[in-house]
Amino acid sequence: MLIQDMQNFLVDSQAGMANVARHRGVSTEFDEYYEQVAAATVSIANLRDHLAGFGIPSCHTRWVTERPALMTPLQRALDILPQAGDAASKIVESLAPADETDVFLKGGLGAFSSPTLSAALVERRIENIIVCGVITEFGIQATTFQAIDLGYRPLIVSDCCASMTYATRELTLDGLSFGVTKVRPWRELCYNLDALKHDDVAVL
Question: pTM to 2 decimals?
Answer without folding.
Answer: 0.89
